[in-house]
Amino acid sequence: MPSEFHTQMGFHALQLRLSKTLSVLANEKGLRLMNPIWMDGSLSLPVPGGPVSLTIVLSSGEQEKVSLDAAQLTSWLENRWSTVDQQLRQALDALKTRRPK
Known about the structure:
There is one protein chain. The N and C termini lie far apart (44 Å). The chain has helices spanning 8-28, 70-77, 84-98; strands at residues 37-38, 52-57, 63-68. A hairpin with a 5-residue loop joins strand 2 (52-57) and strand 3. By secondary structure, it is an alpha+beta fold.
């Protein structure tokens, strides 16, 4: 089930899908990303019903933290309306305004 991202396999699948989406959105904005930092760098899995945090990192070092609500992620994974893409775009926009010219 796609919404079981609190398991090892489910979280890995979520990370892959979010990373792919993030890469596409970053390319549209002309940004080059490093690998995101998941769950504040800890090796822990998200708790059931809890948020998933990631820190988006530009190749120049700027960072922007994003916290994604479990209900929104579930909707996103099930291809229903959610704010996940919008939150990722907003974080990338914030990074774009801060990156060195």
